[in-house]
Specification:
Blueprint lengths: L1 E8 L4 E8 L26 E7 L3 E7 L9
Antiparallel strand pairs: 1-2, 3-4
């Protein structure tokens, strides 16, 4: 059995996803971070995204985009 729990907090700008399974070593995946870059409002100098491992079974995605239409990146 697999279970997915998701927690979102816009105030802290965080999305947490926890995947669990009833059998050890039964979850495996490859993660990619892709998106469409709006050339008119995006700046390679200020945008950044990174993926880092967290312990033996965690992944942390961190990023910031440029400000857009009055909304801070």
């Amino acid at each position: 059995m697999f279970q997915r729990d998701v927690f979102v907090t816009p105030v802290d700008q965080v999305i947490v996803i926890r995947l669990t399974a009833d059998k050890p070593r039964s979850i495996s995946f490859v993660a990619n971070l892709r998106g469409y870059r709006n050339q008119a409002h995006s700046n390679y100098a200020t945008d950044y995204f990174r993926m880092d491992g967290y312990g033996d079974n965690g992944l942390i995605l961190t990023g910031k985009s440029a400000d857009y239409l009055g909304v801070e990146g």
